[in-house]
Structure prediction request, 249 residues.
Amino acid sequence: MTNGPQRAVDAMPRIALVDLLRGLALTNMTVFHFVWDLEFFGIVEPHTTDMALWRSFAATIAGTFLFVSGASLWLANSRQIPWPRWGRRFAILVVAATAITLVTRIVTPAEYIRFGILHMIAAASVLGLAFMRSPWWVTAVSAATIIAIDQFVSWRSDSVYLFWTGFGRNEFAASDFRPVLPWLAPSVLGIAVAQLCHRAGWLKMLASWQPESILARALQSLGRRSLIYYLIHQPILFGLIWMGLRVFE
Prediction:
């Protein structure tokens, strides 16, 4: 028999919409990386993914991932933080992010990923815990404040140790760079929205909805396996394009 706090944690409903949004972000990410790979192999024009439209697309994808990760963080830890489970998830994220840095350092040394989306999700998993007990409006104001600090505070340090915070000058090329400022904001906003839904009594209603179409169910299923997909999709895309070029050259 479980105790009261544990029942409260277990009773927090799983929201299919959260998994669906994560799956949609993964699909969009695959499209972006496919175009990036085509650019890498010289099949499309250089700097294609540096164009404003593609950069906005990439930012939207990153924002969606972080928003969903914030909402998920609150849903999993709002009543009681299961430290062993949280610690395992955090350790997996750190190992995965480190692997991304090492692999890109070898494959694309000129613009390897120092602090990308996985690094930021890991950081938000720690920083977001500060908002687990906050009223939703305090959390929402905090998200807006993070954006305001990034926009209006001009001070930047030359220290190489602060590049990941957003307070560094960051004069380097990177295929994916998501520093704490401003990218903590969408994660904190995700926490605020989850808190608001809980406060308004909407969580059970959201949990009652289940996707019916094959596409929506596929996206939901993909969203539940996001980290595995994230780690394997790019090597697969990269390998398929490389083999295609060898076959048809």
Observations:
- The first helix runs from residue 4 to 11.
- The two ends are 65 Å apart (CA to CA).
